[in-house]
Hints:
This protein is an alpha/beta fold. It contains 19 helices and 22 strands.
Amino acid sequence: xxxxxxxxxxxxxxxxxxxxxxxxxxxxxxxxxxxxxxxxxxxxxxxxxxxxxxxxxxxxxxxxxxxxxxxxxxxxxxxxxxxxxxxxxxxxxxxxxxxxxxxxxxxxxxxxxxxxxxxxxxxxxxxxxxxxxxxxxxxxxxxxxxxxxxxxxxxxxxxxxxxxxxxxxxxxxxxxxxxxxxxxxxxxxxxxxxxxxxxxxxxxxxxxxxxxxxxxxxxxxxxxxxxxxxxxxxxxxxxxxxxxxxxxxxxxxxxxxxxxxxxxxxxxxxxxxxxxxxxxxxxxxxxxxxxxxxxxxxxxxxxxxxxxxxxxxxxxxxxxxxxxxxxxxxxxxxxxxxxxxxxxxxxxxxxxxxxxxxxxxxxxxxxxxxxxxxxxxxxxxxxxxxxxxxxxxxxxxxxxxxxxxxxxxxxxxxxxxxxxxxxxxxxxxxxxxxxxxxxxxxxxxxxxxxxxxxxxxxxxxxxxxxxxxxxxxxxxxxxxxxxxxxxxxxxxxxxxxxxxxxxxxxxxxxxxxxxxxxxxxxxxxxxxxxxxxxxxxxxxx
Length: 541
């Protein structure tokens, strides 16, 4: 009897422990910190020049991934990708000026998934795409369905844009620009963002609400703006700028050469200017680190660090003169590789996973596993939860990044690149696509590059003028005098080139009175008249 009673008590205790453990597991919160245009020039990644003590300390608390890559090295496509767990080929968003719901209206974002589980989903600053600095203080291309609450900070850096030095007049975000600013951290947009994030942490600590809190920084994206004290931490002359041979572009594929030479004003910078710009980038990186530190200090102060998963990353990497290029939009490691640090309850501490490939689309399912939620079936990313527990675990053999490049004359080439633990393989589509502008609809119409090249090579043979000059048969030129798409002169010219020609002119528009879709049962009068004229012409000898 006593043995049975002891056994019964033992079972109760096990059940209690199990329930308690599961309950704690479910209560984990998420602090998601995303920088803008930050590469891996960080102390924790081995850069001894850049001063980033707070990010370095976060890495000691958790797992640092040294082989993490974005899926498209451009702000908008990358951010939509990691917020949905989908690849750009799936979202169809490969440009900046698109809202998520324009392409995939019914998708559930990472923030939405937390909302479904009664988490308070909050955004401070830039998570989805914003034109930086143009959209600072606005909602940019944000997704309203993702958040319960949002804050759009607006600081001194935006107000004092006129002080910014730039390579291209009145251009700040699209080209290299910088400013050692007056004032304090808290006056800058990202400083205000950090302060607002801190307020939310205080609120959640008091209320006990579960939260998914996303803090998006606008820096170090150009313009590189930070208080002067951060510039004072560096010596401009100590900056090293990569040396590139004059023939370098000839040694890489055409598409890759286009990607690193696109911005003319940023090519072949004078050495002192290049050093000044690199110093400004590093100063702004240190400023970003300080704001991250303020938020993490508050997390610890409130005790929320004990039940909050922290993810720190960037939307893509960044070139600082490597391959002769500045900024992003290449398929080199400099642009595809991103910092990625995960820390918090249940995550190994002070682990550097330098070789295991992971992707930003993997963050979504990983967070689901960490907090005990189901990952939506549509998510393409793979959870790297196992790696956070075991540094020898692997979930991928390679990481995929894609990019489309254009030479500015209509030639667009799509590239795909995979990075393993040791190698990178990049393939640019041999059969690229050329886009021509439809002047009537203002649409870019794709045509096969081979077709285009064949036409250019044989243009003289395919010329309408040459064809009609050599044509001996009858020729009828028909046109609408009210045509606003094709000039009337085209028809007159063709009639002039053909020796045995006649002209049929009718007062109508480009489509001869028709439109799409045509819902009537009879032909428009103009099109009927044209049809009868054509039949008579074909019947004539």
